[in-house]
Design brief:
The protein is an all-beta fold. It is 0% helix and 60% strand. A hairpin with a 4-residue loop joins β9 and β10. The radius of gyration is 21 Å and the shape is elongated.
Length: 122
C-alpha cells in the first residue's frame, strides 16, 4: 500500500510562491512540483469613469496572482450593474451608458467582488 505525503514550502525571493511536492512512498519515489497561482486581488480598469449618456466602453478586470503577476480576468469574472436603467454591462465587460446618474459596476470572481463607481454625464 502506498502512503502519500504533501509538503508545502514557502519561500521569499522578492515574491512569494508556493511549491507543493507530492511524493509517493514506494520502491520508486516520484516527485511532482505543482505551482499554485491563486488570484489574491481583483481590480477593474475603466478607460473613463465619467462617460456621457450613450457612450460604450470596454471594462477590464485584472487579477493579481500569488506570484505577484497581473493577469487579464475580463472573461472570467461575472459583471453586474447596480442599476441597469443607468448602465448595462454584458458578460464580456462591455458597458453601455443609458442616462445620467451614478452606478456601480461590479466584477465577481470565486466569491470575491470589486466594484468601480461610474458617474454618467448628460
Amino acid at each position: 500500500m502506498k502512503q502519500w505525503s504533501t509538503t508545502i514550502r514557502l519561500a521569499r525571493l522578492g515574491v512569494f510562491f508556493i511549491i507543493v511536492l507530492l511524493s509517493a512512498c514506494s520502491n520508486d519515489n516520484q516527485y511532482a512540483e505543482v505551482p499554485i497561482n491563486t488570484i489574491i486581488l481583483v481590480k477593474i480598469v475603466s478607460p473613463n469613469d465619467n462617460p456621457e449618456t450613450g457612450d460604450s466602453q470596454q471594462l477590464q478586470a485584472m487579477g493579481k496572482n500569488t506570484d505577484q503577476r497581473w493577469v487579464d480576468m475580463t472573461d472570467k469574472v461575472q459583471w453586474k450593474s447596480s442599476d441597469p436603467r443607468l448602465a448595462d454591462v454584458n458578460e464580456t465587460g462591455w458597458m453601455t451608458t443609458k442616462k445620467a446618474g451614478s452606478v456601480d459596476i461590479r466584477a465577481e470572481y470565486a466569491g470575491q467582488a470589486v466594484s468601480v463607481k461610474i458617474v454618467i454625464k448628460n
